[in-house]
Write a structure and sequence with these properties.
Layout: H1 3-19, E1 35-40, E2 46-50, H2 60-70, H3 72-76, E3 83-87, H4 100-106
Parallel strand pairs: 2-3
Antiparallel strand pairs: 1-2
Protein name: DNA methyltransferase
Keywords: Methyltransferase, Transferase
GO molecular function, one term: methyltransferase activity
């Protein structure tokens, strides 16, 4: 992966961290550990590989739309093209994936 693509992945993650908040938990999806990977192809199409805290999450559609909307600015300035969101269940999400910030915000003990 080129330096430019690595920097673009980091910008995508930063956008998600700033703009996509889990509506039930009030913490962004990056710090919750819900984003597993950002995939970029050679045309800068983005696939966000992520999970949710639970299968059957009633807010799945909202979160997917928020992910796409949060990256629209990068699309408008031509840094990325299409955005897809791939919800995966393997590996399953667990609290250990959360950042220290998320654990503090939610009062989760760091074991």
């Amino acid at each position: 992966m080129s330096n430019e693509q690595q920097e673009l992945k980091e910008r995508v993650l930063a956008e998600l961290e700033q703009k996509v908040i889990d509506p039930e938990l009030g913490v962004d999806i990056v710090n919750l550990g819900l984003v597993y990977e950002i995939h970029l192809d050679h045309e800068n199409n983005v696939t966000v590989e992520m999970t949710l805290t639970a299968m059957g999450c009633p807010l799945a559609g909202t979160i997917v739309n928020d992910v796409k909307n949060s990256l629209s600015e990068l699309q408008e300035i031509g840094e990325i093209k299409d955005v897809e969101v791939d919800i995966v269940w393997n590996p399953p999400w667990e609290k250990s994936r959360m950042s220290r910030y998320a654990k503090l915000a939610l009062g989760v003990a760091d074991n």
